[in-house]
């Protein structure tokens, strides 16, 4: 069962419940095949607004491919609907415009531009060419808000290239916020971060997560345990387990995948964060 972040233990229902809005992302029988290889093999997932969902699983489980399929970067079959609107088959920019945003395992900010310019460009992705042609002197309210929420206000005039690793990831998240993304798919956002940066990132995700749907692809199990409201475990392109952190950690199938044996009771998935090697910090595949 998926628990809502309010700790009430209620199960989220499509159409909203108890003040939750009806924003949701529904994935049905999603499949991605590369030359006959089933990278995503019939995934079903329902993501509600307010959910901070962690998507975990061994290297090669299909996590990034799943995000790629949702955002239109790889062809897929099945169905992905955002509040009822089918996304599959849409072009990448249309999906982004519908409020489904993602980050990549390697930060992709414009290093030679300032923080403000990066945010301005991201905001511009949402505007028509005529608006873009007009000179903008004042900082748009949405950009101020993004600077505030990501804590990057002090660095607004710094070139993105000189930012610390963590700050670049926060800038990317800020860029999704100014694009009005209501579904944020973050691919290993804390890889390579210091523990302080992880903590700050977790708090940032909480701040933005209340009104949005946030999916975090992660190998860092400590980070997951501290911040996840729900977890989906992917293995060999399929959903192996889903539920609260405690439910997933207690699932023998999950322990088996992470440890190679269901009987290794003294371990938990925390001690086997990246089963086939260290969590990747760069390069997706
Ligand atoms: N463009 C592609 N062409 C062929 N095979 C691919 C392609 N992209 C991914 N794959 C394969 O699909 C599988 C899933 O890859 P994916 O990158 O989604 O895994 P992941 O769960 O994100 O792994 P990691 O934790 O290492 O990032 C892997 O076996 C990968 O080699
Ligand atoms: Mg990946």
From TrEMBL:
A GO term, aspect molecular function: ATP hydrolysis activity
Keywords: ATP-binding, Nucleotide-binding, Transport
Coiled coil regions in record: none
Annotated spans, Disordered: 265-285
Top-rank lineage group of the source organism: Bacteria
One protein family per Pfam: ABC_tran
InterPro entries: AAA+_ATPase (IPR003593), ABC_AA/LPS_Transport (IPR051120), ABC_transporter-like_ATP-bd (IPR003439), ABC_transptr_urea_ATP-bd_UrtD (IPR017781), BCA_ABC_TP_C (IPR032823), P-loop_NTPase (IPR027417)
Residue span, ABC transporter domain: 25-261
Record PANTHER family: CONSERVED COMPONENT OF ABC TRANSPORTER FOR NATURAL AMINO ACIDS-RELATED, HIGH-AFFINITY BRANCHED-CHAIN AMINO ACID TRANSPORT ATP-BINDING PROTEIN
Protein name: ABC branched-chain amino acid transporter
Signal sequence coordinates: none
A Gene Ontology cellular-component term: plasma membrane
């Amino acid at each position: 069962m998926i628990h809502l972040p309010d700790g009430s233990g209620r199960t989220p229902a499509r159409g909203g419940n108890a003040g939750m809005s009806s924003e949701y992302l529904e994935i049905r029988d999603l499949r991605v095949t590369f030359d006959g290889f089933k990278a995503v093999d019939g995934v079903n997932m329902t993501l509600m607004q307010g959910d901070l969902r962690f998507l975990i699983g061994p290297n090669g489980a299909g996590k990034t491919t799943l995000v790629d399929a949702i955002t239109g970067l790889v062809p897929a079959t099945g169905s992905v609907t955002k509040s009822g609107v089918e996304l599959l088959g849409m072009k990448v920019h249309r999906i982004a415009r519908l409020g489904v945003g993602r980050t990549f395992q390697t930060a992709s900010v414009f290093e030679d531009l300032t923080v403000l310019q990066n945010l301005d460009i991201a905001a511009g992705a949402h505007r028509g060419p005529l608006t873009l042609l007009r000179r903008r002197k004042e900082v748009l309210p949405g950009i101020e808000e993004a600077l505030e929420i990501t804590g990057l206000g002090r660095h607004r005039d710094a070139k993105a290239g000189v930012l610390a690793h963590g700050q670049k990831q926060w800038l990317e998240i800020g860029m999704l916020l100014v694009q009005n993304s209501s579904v944020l798919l973050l691919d290993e956002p804390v890889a390579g971060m210091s523990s302080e940066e992880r903590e700050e990132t977790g708090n940032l995700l909480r701040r933005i997560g209340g009104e949005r749907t946030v999916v975090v692809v992660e190998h860092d199990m400590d980070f997951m345990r501290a911040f996840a409201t729900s977890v989906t475990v992917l293995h060999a392109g399929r959903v192996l387990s889903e539920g609260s952190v405690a439910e997933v950690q207690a699932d023998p199938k999950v322990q088996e995948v992470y440890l190679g044996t269901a009987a290794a009771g003294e371990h938990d998935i925390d001690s086997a964060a990246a089963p086939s090697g260290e969590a990747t910090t760069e390069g997706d595949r």
